[in-house]
Amino acid sequence: MSTAYRTVGWNRQKRRYDTVVACGAGAMLVTLVAGGSLVNPNATIETLLIRSLAITAFILLHVVLSIGPLCRIDRRFLPLLYNRRHLGVTMFVVALSHGVFSIVQFHALGNRHPLVSLLTTSGGITTVSDFPFQPLGLAALVILFLMAATSHDFWLHNLTAPVWKTLHMGVYVAYGFIVVHVAFGALQSERSAWLAGLLGVGAAWIVGIHLVAGTRERKTDRPGTPRVGAAAPAAAPLVDVCAVADIPDTRAVVRCIGGERVAVFRYGQCVSAISNVCQHQNGPLGEGKILNGCVVCPWHGYEYLPDSGASPPPFTEKVPTFVVEVRNGRVLVDPRPHPPGTRLEPARIP
Amino acid sequence: MIRPLRRAHRGIILLLAILLPLVLLIAVVGRADRPVQRDWVFMGTR
């Protein structure tokens, strides 16, 4: 968390993360070039580089796309999420290198502009192999560029988290384009079954873990039990969230109330409810815990006071708060959110 | 994540789950008997 924009807020964890990413990508690239030259001794260094860069970027994209659902399935993957943007930008740089090398190699020798050549090379489609796969690769690269260019917190704050998240969901469109790009490109000139198999396994893995994580998430979205008449007649019915004993100290229980997730925190003899959505990147606040009196987001460490939903000064992030009551050992929440940063008296556990 | 985003996210994943196997099936079943030799050298001059 920071009050000013810096190019990269370096710390020990980020340095370690980036070193591992750079060394891993570099080692992968060298291995693929060396392996490719052994398998296909006639291939030129340009061809080997184009192919190796493509495979490296595609593997990195799979890793990037796997981190989110893996974190939903098992919290031990959370450290990978902390710097996912660095991994994404690295993947874009590798993919861009593949794109530039390919355009120079295959489209720069003619009398037309390379980009015009790339977009117009394909003639009529009479067979599957005639499908214009190159423009799809370019489209994916444009999406990945937009994501890499807006990956900094500056854009996150100025676009707002929902807009930024929507923009960055374009990675799935890019992934779809790239699978088609490979299926109608490399798969048509390389006949080995393992390439088609790997492409299929990769796509099945990405879709599969997202579906598994999504199925788990659906359970959280089941609405809480309304207690009609539990509040004043004019008020909305309070929602029975859980027993007080169900919430571990300094932790939260997350329930879907009024269509949105609410994190109900217990700290000592107090219970407070705030929106589950972190203002930074929509992280799940209810999966964090209270440290030094603040709810800490498990994704990037953004902090909020549990009774007001406001970040402690000098920070300015705020999330909506909800009225909580404790009756007969049960925690009841009013489903109507209060404006972000509104302080509400915590419910006391008798 | 907020509700409309979650829905959009699920929609995209379901779309990928349906479309990607179809794409792969078409690309593998429909490919030529021999590897395609693309005429790269002349691409920019047509």
What is the strand tally of chain B? 0
| Count, helices of chain B | 1
Instruction: From the alpha carbons, calculate the radius of gyration of chain A and give it in angstroms.
Output: 25 Å
Overall strand count of chain A: 12
| Class by SSE composition of chain B | mainly alpha
The average pLDDT value of chain A, as a whole number, equals 88
Structure description:
The complex is a heterodimer of chains A (350) and B (46). Chain A is of the alpha+beta class and 350 residues long. Chain A has 2 domains: 12-220, Up-down Bundle (Four Helix Bundle (Hemerythrin (Met), subunit A)); 225-348, Rieske [2Fe-2S] iron-sulphur domain (Rieske Iron-sulfur Protein). Helices cover 49% and strands 14% of the residues of chain A. Chain A has helices spanning 12-39, 45-73, 78-82, 84-107, 114-120, 134-149, 153-159, 161-168, 170-184, 186-189, 193-220; strands at residues 225-227, 238-243, 252-257, 260-267, 270-275, 289-291, 294-296, 303-304, 321-322, 324-327, 330-333, 347-348. In chain A, the strands form 3 sheets. In chain A, strands 3, 4, 5, 9 and 12 form a 5-stranded antiparallel β-sheet that branches. In chain A, helix 6 packs antiparallel against helix 9 (170-184) and helix 7 (153-159) packs across helix 8. The two termini of chain A are 36 Å apart. Residues 228-233 of chain A have low confidence and may be disordered. With 46 residues, chain B is mainly alpha-helical. Chain B has 1 helix and no strands. The interface between A and B is large, with 47 and 35 residues.
